[in-house]
Amino acid sequence: MKKKLIAVLLVASMAASLAACGNKNAATTSTDSSAADTATAEATTVNTDTTTLRLCLASEPDYLDPALNSSVDGACLAVNSFVGLYTYDENNNLQPAIADGEPEMSEDGLTYTIKLKETKWSNGEALTANDFVYSWNRAVAEETAADYAYMFAPIATNADGTLKIEATDDYTLTVELNAPCAYFFDLLAFPTFMPVYQADVEAANPDGTTPGAWAQEPGFVSNGAFTLTEWKHNESMVYEKNPNFYRADDVKLEKLEFMLSADDTAIYAAYNSGDIDFADSVPNDEIQSLLNSPEFHVIDTLGTYYVGFNVNSDLFKGLTADQASKMRKALSLLIDRQYIVDTVGQTGQVPADTFIPDGMADGNGGVFEASDFGYYDATTTGAGNVEEAKSLLEECGYSFESDGNGGYSISPALEVTYMTNSGTGHEAIAQCIQQDWGLVGIKVNIETEDWNVFLEDRKAGKFDIAREGWIADFNDPINMLEMWLSNGGNNDMQLGKDSSNSSAPSWKAYDEKIQEIYNTTDFAARVDLMREAEDMLMETNAVVPIYFYNDIYLQKENVKGIYTSLNQNKYFMYAEKTAE
């Protein structure tokens, strides 16, 4: 899932993310900040309204429709206002939610029969199995244009493209798969698989051209712990307790009030003054003072911060696909990852030498990345690789002369634009890369965009080079690999999207590899196939991993019960707040 990491989700993560769990470099990860050798931060002001939790996750969300959202902040809002068949508990274990107990699985692992609890929508109407049939088929429909439509690939389809799912009665859902799926229950907890209220969706989209319109203003029907009752766009949102939530008796809060902002300094000021109780953003220059604060939390997650190249960019015009890959490899080798994590990160992130993050399960009872495996030594990239980078660039038609100051000039002149979204951390990383590439005479212009514009420009391929981040949606490597399908909605690098472009890698074999992974019934062979797919991805050098994520946030000491999943979804519904 796309990490907003704007001055909100990532500014702090970038400044305070430790290595992803189980990293091969054996760096310490932590759930608190007590190990830092800094002065303990003073406690901040708290507010005493025990019925309302005040928070800041990010700026204006791109989508609230769970079928259309593809960002972490949007998913956090979704899991607090919708609920699917499964959910995660405070220990990151999958638990039945709307599902009434464990599903019945056929002997061949291809058919699941799922019984549903008798629950209600927020308007009091019964929520039935037919609501899931409608919602899932809507998510895969071409006119919905959901970025995550590919996540339904494990489910078999009918001749008309609809899914082989059936409501055999009001509270029984039958699902037929193409092959046994190691992560099927994870999918049942994912926002894209959550039900949406058909009458709202269709009333707001009579001509079928605006599929997300129904959730662009407050008042829409949902089935989660809270419903959106007020939305001052680009300013604030208010969610109120849903009395028809299936666990309403366990929800102690009456309201969630969200501050919408991309200004990490303003968010931090609001937190310190007691105006908000929870913040997912911390200014870079405040990190060191917070490392020993009991209000500062660092948690394990699975994800990769990376630089992405648009393979269809004019930057590679006139090059062969092999030359374009070598050009990208040269630029990757010049990035000093260790310097970035030491000077921008400051708290021990691990430089990334693979795209699939360390610690991710392999779907067959093991860990995917071996402790001694990497595509390069991420701790030594940077200035020490100048000669190799020059050699690769020379194969692409460039030549170099010493500038007399330890660097080089490049001919023909090479000027590139690096696109990022707002945030002090993102911009600091962009400046590091600007300096690294400057060693060989490349001029880098840094272009900053607002979050929602940034998302759309990346998706549409309106960039040459961009900062990227992906938090795994579930703990299986396929999630980090299927996003690069040619028709995938999250394939920002445009791999396979223009088969006529001779400078872009041929991508048909990759698409076929993913389909082979989907269809295999041998979980051990599946692991090998996923390794082959990652090899194919990394050979393009279009995806340039920088470091592995952890997640950080600030939370008042009078707030308890908030928990976070490995995919950084924040669950606020069971939080409690005391007066002091």
UniProtKB/TrEMBL annotation:
Pfam families: SBP_bac_5. PANTHER family: PERIPLASMIC BINDING COMPONENT OF ABC TRANSPORTER, PERIPLASMIC OLIGOPEPTIDE-BINDING PROTEIN-RELATED. The keyword Phosphoprotein does not apply. Belongs to the bacterial solute-binding protein 5 family. The keyword Transport applies. GO terms for cellular component: ATP-binding cassette (ABC) transporter complex; cell envelope; periplasmic space. One of its GO terms (molecular function) is peptide transmembrane transporter activity. InterPro entries: Peptide/Ni-bd, SBP_5, SBP_5_dom. This is Peptide ABC transporter substrate-binding protein. Residues 1-19 form the signal peptide. Residues 94-491 form the Solute-binding protein family domain. One of its GO terms (biological process) is peptide transport. The lineage of its organism: Bacteria, Bacillati, Bacillota, Clostridia, Lachnospirales.
